[in-house]
Amino acid sequence: MVSDPSDTPSGSSPAGLRAQIAWFALPMLFCLWLNWLGLKTWFTADDFAWLGLRPRVHDLSSLCWALFHPFAQGTVRTLSERAYFLVFYSLFGLNVIPFRIAAFLTQFAAIGFLMAVLRRLSGSALAAFLAPLLWCCAAPMALAMGWSSAYNEILCALLLFAAFYFLLRHIDSGRRRDLIAVWACYLLGFGALEHIVVFPILASAYALLFARPYFRKTLLLFLPALLFAGIHVFLIPPSTDPLYQLSFDARIFDTLRTYWFLSTAAFRPIDNWTRFPHPFGLALSLALAFALFGYAAARAARRDYRGLFYLIWYFALLAPVLPLRNHIQDYYLTLPLTGLAMLGASALAHALKSRRPALATAAIVLALAYTTVSASGLRFNLRWNYEHARSLQSLIEAIYDAHLAHPGKIILLDNVTNGLFWAGLGDHPFRLLDIPGVYLAPGSEVDIQPHLEWGGISDYVIGPSQAMEALDQNRALVLVVGVHGVIDVTGSYRKVLAAEMANLSPMIVDLADPAFASRLGPEWYSIDKGFRWMPRSATVTLGAPTSPGMEIVVTGFCPAAAVAAGPVHLSVSAAGRNLGSSAITAPDSPFVVAFPLPPSLAPTGMMSVTLSLDRVFSIPSDRRRLGLAIRRIEIKRPD
Description:
The protein has three domains: 362 residues, no CATH class; 100 residues, no CATH class; 126 residues, Sandwich (Jelly Rolls), CATH 2.60.120. Helices cover 48% and strands 13% of the residues. The longest helix is centred in the middle third of the chain and has 49 residues. The N and C termini lie far apart (71 Å). Strands 5, 6, 7, 9, 12 and 14 form a six-stranded antiparallel β-sheet that branches. Strands 2-1-3-4 form a four-stranded mixed β-sheet, with helices on both faces. Strands 8-13-10-11 form a four-stranded antiparallel β-sheet, with no helix packed on it. The protein contains 20 helices and 14 strands. It is elongated. It is an alpha+beta fold.
């Protein structure tokens, strides 16, 4: 496939060797310069789940469990998640720098193999030099370069390119050792990321287009992919998380269109982090599509199918995520973007060598427009990820310092935002630091989306009575989270909580607090992840309104199964009086509904409140008839 040897750096002389080293090194240095913030971005979110594996490994049996047990939607990424976090956490603890150095070195190796592959495919050293520049400046690369849990994308890219490189060498030389290297890299890829199942498609497509005698040999590569797919389908239970539900219908094309715009990093249907107006972004995306597809078609008309192969590379690697229409993520493009990078680099190199000034100028302008917009988005996302992780690190370190200063005390956190909580607290980082008791201050948990599909927030929920008891016994510390760190507000918070309990407790039922169990009817199910499930009907006892104009407010969570057949209607009655009904429609979402109390309701004493639903549901292996997950019922004045 190398059609222009004179365009390839030679290492036969000292000058040629230096040129070859520079040819490989400059794209890697460009990647480092562009993504330097990712080199020091701390842990967030799923990182703590993988870091938490090490304390659970005590012997060979638990090590095998940690390495091979299906986690995270049924995945078994032994190399890129399990071994990566187990080894580095064992050696370096929570020092993130070694993790990030390893990720960057892996990316540099992937860049080297990408250049070697494209150099063989295109015969152009210029195209091979440009491809990693286009890949590294792509905005969707921000998470891959700045999030330790996305190491699987980088490692898979390395193994994918390495396997393909050795396949090209084997086709050129026929050497057995190159074929062994193909299989070694390919099989190791199954420990990195599921996308490796696409490799046989790429290999067979290449053989069909350029090396027909080797096509039958590439068919053997499908056997491990089919075995891997069979294991996932028949032996690993499917994910119950609605974000990871697969949809095979016409909406796949909507997802494909969204990913194309994300790939060009010019027009963002999801959000707009760029400072460029959408009309400009849309025009740029369309221009890129016209240029890339036009180049591939023009070369195919001349029986040069390399551009077509690069498009196959892009779409084949994108295909596994297209059914995930509820979970469209930038970093899923890390691998597919290599196909567009190879196509764009080849088109740009061809235009520059075409001796047609107008074509070369247009190609340069389009390439500069893309890199400017895309690199702007990349740096924005890297900065956001870095700042987000730094805020989380500061909070965790402050809590650790408070724990050391007040050993044995539980810690109550106030003013934790939903974003900060799910940036890392939800994955229990405090277990790594042997801090046993960290909770959200009573009442503040209503600001956190429960995400029952992720395990909920029940481990962080503590009832007001339990918190008050701990404060009275000097066993609790209250920290309020602010912009500039945390502040100890234990004394003032105790007074506020005591006043709230004295004045409002008869008019509040906190269903996650065992202290309120006596105020609940027998219909309620037990506490589950910070809520209680209600059947078709359930009762609570509340203090009657103290003045006119008050309302009953019900706070809870609606699972997708409750509204799968349409809206579910929640009706409320108090003291035998019907207060009305409210339709709950949003799946897997929290809800807050309010029902005004009539002025004629008794102004003193306690009253019975009944919650009723028009429909309930059940789930396999659970005999309960479930309605909604209720967190709190209270009487208060409208906000």
